[in-house]
Amino acid sequence: MAALGWLTPRRRSATARSVLAGEASAEAARKSTQDVPVSAPAAGEEPEFPVHGDDRAAAFFDLDNTVMQGAALFHFGRGLYKRKFFETRDLARFAWQQAWFRLAGVEDPEHMQEARDSALSIVKGHRVAELQSIGEEIYDEYMAERIWPGTRALAQAHLDAGQKVWLVTAAPVEIAQVIARRLGLTGALGTVAESVDGVYTGKLVGEPLHGPAKAEAVRALAAAEGLDLSRCAAYSDSHNDIPMLSLVGHPYAINPDSKLRKHARRLDWRLRDYRTGRKAAKVGIPAAAGVGAVAGGTAAAIALHRRRR
Predict the structure, then answer these.
(1) 3-state secondary structure of 209
(2) E-state strands within the chain
(3) What is the dihedral of CA 156, 286, 49, 263, to 10 degrees?
(4) Least-confidence region, from 34-43, 99-108, 239-248
(5) Integer distance in angstroms from the first to the last C-alpha of the chain?
(6) Are the CB atoms for 160 and 178 separated by under 8 Å?
(7) How far is residue 70's CA from residue 226's CA, in Å, rounded to a whole number?
(8) Which of 75, 203, 76, 91 is nearest to 131 (CA)?
(9) DSSP structure class, residue 140
(10) What is the CA radius of gyration of the chain?
(11) Of residues 64, 237, 257, 273, which has the active-site annotation?
C-alpha cells in the first residue's frame, strides 16, 4: 500500500521517487518494531520538554555526524572489505570519501551517490540476513566508539520521557536498524534496497533516503504512528535535512555545517556542538566532548529538559 502513496498529488518539494523512498522506509521501520504503551501526562501539568508520557510525540535523529562521527556507509564498506566483499582499489575509494567527509563536515551528493552505487553493486546477490549479521559485527568494530555521547544523551532523554526515538539516515535500513537496536532506540528509517526472496537485486526502492526523502519518511511514519509532528523533535548536522527539521515543532542543529548553522540562527532553532578543536570554536558553541564525554552527555540531557525560546 505504501508504494502507491507517491501517486497522490502533493504541494511539496519532493519528487515521486523521494516519496516512494520515504514511504518504503517508514513501512520497513514499522515492521521492525512493536508498539510500547506509555502513560498520558497528568491533567493540568506544565510538562518540560521532552514531555513525559506524550505518546503523540517522538524524536528523529540523523545518523552521520549527528549521532556518529563520519558516515555509516563508509564504515560499513570497511567492514565488507575486511570480509573480502571487494578489492583494495574499492577500499581506497571508500577511504578517500570518508576522509573528505570528515574534513569537510558536510555531505557531498556526488560522493554519497558514488558510495551508494558501490555498495549496491557489492551486495547484489547476497542475502539480506547475511548483511544483517555482518552489520552487527561491523558496528562493534568501527561504529560503537564513534557515537557522540552528547547526542546519545539527547536521545536517552526522549526515551526516558516515554517517547519513541528513530534514526533517519541515507544508510541502508538494515544497518541503521542494527545501530538503533544497539543504542536502545525504537527503530530506524533508512534507504531500502530491493530484495527478492531475501536476496538483494542491486536496485533501490525509490531513491536514497536523503534530503526531501527523509522528510517524506518522517511524514509517513508520523501518519502511521498517529504522531503530532508539532510535538516532535528532529536533530541533524546537515543543511540537506532542513526539510525534515522544518516538519517538527522542536528542530535541533547538532554539530551543524555552516549553512544549517545560519539557517538555525535565523529561525532561532536550538543548536548543540559536540566536536572538539577549531571546528567547534568557529560556531561559538561549547564543545561538550572537549570537557569529557560523560560531562558533555550529562549537560546535554539536562539542557534538553529546560525549555528554551
Answers:
(1) coil
(2) 58-62, 164-172, 187-191, 193-196, 199-204, 233-236, 250-254, 270-272
(3) -110
(4) 34-43
(5) 40
(6) no
(7) 33
(8) 76
(9) I
(10) 19
(11) 64
Supply the mean pLDDT for the chain. Answer: 77
CB 164 within 8 A of CB 58: yes
64 is catalytic: yes
Strand partners, 253: 236, 271
Q: Please name the residue that has the C-alpha cell 502507491.
A: 4
Helix count (H) and strand count (E) of the chain? 12, 8
Task: Give the mean pLDDT of 123-147.
Answer: 93
62 is catalytic: yes
Q: How far apart are CA 180 and CA 185, in angstroms?
A: 5
- CA dist 172 and 195 (Å) reads 12
Using alpha carbons, select from 11, 13, 15, 33 the residue that is nearest to residue 23: 15
**Annotated active-site residue in 35, 54, 55, 62:** 62
Picking from 255, 173, 168, the residue whose alpha carbon sits closest to that of residue 212 is: 168
Contacts of 166 (CB under 8 A, 6+ apart): 29, 58, 59, 60, 61, 180, 185, 186, 187, 188, 189, 218, 221
pLDDT one-digit tens code per residue, 183-206: 999 999 999 889 999 999 988 888
Instruction: For residue 178, give the C-alpha cell.
Output: 542494527
What pLDDT sits at residue 302? 35
**DSSP, res 50:** S
- 194-198: which pairs have CB atoms within 8 A and are 24 or more residues apart? 195/128, 198/127, 198/128, 198/129
User: Cell 514499522 belongs to which residue?
Assistant: 30
Please report the sign of the dihedral spanned by the C-alpha atoms of residue 102, residue 104, residue 106, residue 108.
Answer: negative
Cell, residue 17? 521517487
**What is the mean predicted confidence (pLDDT) over 42-58?**
73
